[in-house]
Amino acid sequence: MQARLRFAPSVQDFKYNKKRVRLVSQDSYLKDAAKGVVYWMSRDQRVQDNWAFLYAQRLALKQQLPLHVCFCLVPKFLEATIRHFGFMLKGLQEVAEECQELDIPFHLLIGFAKDVLPAFVVGRGIGGVVTDFSPLRVPMQWVEDVKERLPGDVPFVQVDAHNIVPCWVASDKQEYAASTIRRKIHDRLSEFLTEFPPVIKHPYPSAAPAEPIDWNACHASLQVDCSVKEVTWATPGTAAGLAVLESFIGERLKSFGTDRNNPNRAALSNLSPWFHFGQVSVQRAILEVQKYRSKYKESVDGFIEEAVVRRELADNFCYYNRNYDKVEGAYNWAKTTLKLHAQDKRSHLYELKQLEEGKTHDPLWNAAQLQMVHEGKMHGFLRMYWAKKILEWTRSSEEALKFAIYLNDRYELDGRDPNGYVGCMWSICGIHDHGWTERAVFGKIRYMNYAGCKRKFNVGQFERRYDPHQLGQ
Ligand SMILES: Cc1cc2nc3c(=O)[nH]c(=O)nc-3n(C[C@H](O)[C@H](O)[C@H](O)COP(=O)(O)OP(=O)(O)OC[C@H]3O[C@@H](n4cnc5c(N)ncnc54)[C@H](O)[C@@H]3O)c2cc1C
């Protein structure tokens, strides 16, 4: 907070980079009789370090209007389970408390945004709506639906608060690989990787406060699968996420460069759940981590490559490729090679249930699967091996992709994320990769095997850690 305040007393005294913002509606002017501004929070579930929240406050301060935050809670979302909803709701509870301290009413609207947000806007005489950005199909449709139903004279804008370089600025097309987007992103970092001004106590109070929220009743009313349990190692919310960032910098960053591909070592940031729910800003993580560049150059550069280049490449892929989670979305060379090898004999064939229960012949694969099922986060290196084996052991690449995405979205706390779709597409369909030596089933898709893992790390140690008997399975 001190760094933010040193940077600017508020967003009003700060030259906001409008390239982060794009107009969704036709009309761009706030009408004179407006009684407030709304930030419709969706992907970026935090108060500070949030360019969408800041833009909404900037608008409200300029017009001397109250500012509201709305979150539209749907009772069901894709394959999300209580593991995901529980994490999200507890994070939102913290957001609501922080908003209250800043005199910004937080409204939890129950239902789809198209059904509840326009009525809220009309009912409260709201003059402008700001939302954040996700490149995924379902949230993109939510934005379209709200646009259709908002009154024509209410300007509606979208801010990319998740990426450092806004997705539409980084590139205007689907990038082929990390090598083609890396320079484009690095070239824009001096412009976009800035400190944030603070979201401040809002000086224009709303006449009608927000309805009180019964979080326990809300949790109980969800219509989601409760068999995938919430995890205990990851405390939801921004404060806990920032504590993980602090522990990463203090304890693990030094070995990130050398040990990040070793699943037995604690070298990763572990931040993906907080990044996924927008509880921690990646930009904040980079601002803090890069302070250690002179001390841990290899690690800091490696982290920037993963958290900025690879992550923003994933958003680029999902934004520009509508088939981001289908074999049709792969490059032609990959589709051709997979087709050519579609009839190849598989050494093993597994049903979804056997995979889900971690009952294959491969103890490393089973251990990785059980790590994901029990802890909600599989180690990054093993995710590649895990998905590639699903290609090897199922009837077709289509089935492999379907199973991998299903399992990933169901058990990973960071699932249903562009990174997940791209991770599965990279492993199974060669997205952002190139052709390798041709072999059975995989064709030219990059292959990984058990012997290769054994050369990289102590496979037995990892298998013992996730032994099904020890886990009580
Ligand atoms: C099959 C498969 C499935 C995956 N599913 C997901 C998923 O559902 N959600 C998800 O966030 N990531 C996914 N990834 C990418 C990556 O494995 C995870 O982001 C990473 O393991 C998360 O742990 P961490 O935060 O400790 O990572 P760190 O290594 O500490 O990296 C920091 C951040 O960089 C980003 N990042 C790291 N690796 C990648 C990558 N390869 N591609 C894009 N961004 C990356 C993530 O935001 C991550 O939180 C998947 C990868 C594969 C191969």
TrEMBL record:
Name of the molecule in the record: Deoxyribodipyrimidine photo-lyase
Enzyme Commission number: 4.1.99.3
Function of the molecule: Involved in repair of UV radiation-induced DNA damage. Catalyzes the light-dependent monomerization (300-600 nm) of cyclobutyl pyrimidine dimers (in cis-syn configuration), which are formed between adjacent bases on the same DNA strand upon exposure to ultraviolet radiation.
Organism, scientific name: Chelonoidis abingdonii
Source superkingdom: Eukaryota
Residues of the Photolyase/cryptochrome alpha/beta domain: 35-167
Coiled coil: none
GO MF entries: deoxyribodipyrimidine photo-lyase activity; DNA binding
Pfam entry (one): DNA_photolyase
InterPro entries (UniProt xref): Crypto/Photolyase_FAD-like_sf, Crypto/Photolyase_N_sf, DNA_photolyase_2, DNA_photolyase_2_CS, DNA_photolyase_N, Photolyase_Class-2, Rossmann-like_a/b/a_fold
Enzyme class name: lyase
Reactions catalysed: cyclobutadipyrimidine (in DNA) = 2 pyrimidine residues (in DNA)
Cofactor: FAD
Record-stated family: Belongs to the DNA photolyase class-2 family.
SUPFAM superfamilies found in the cross-reference section: Cryptochrome/photolyase FAD-binding domain, Cryptochrome/photolyase, N-terminal domain
Annotated keywords: Chromophore, DNA damage, DNA repair, DNA-binding, FAD, Flavoprotein, Lyase
Biological process, per Gene Ontology: photoreactive repair; UV protection
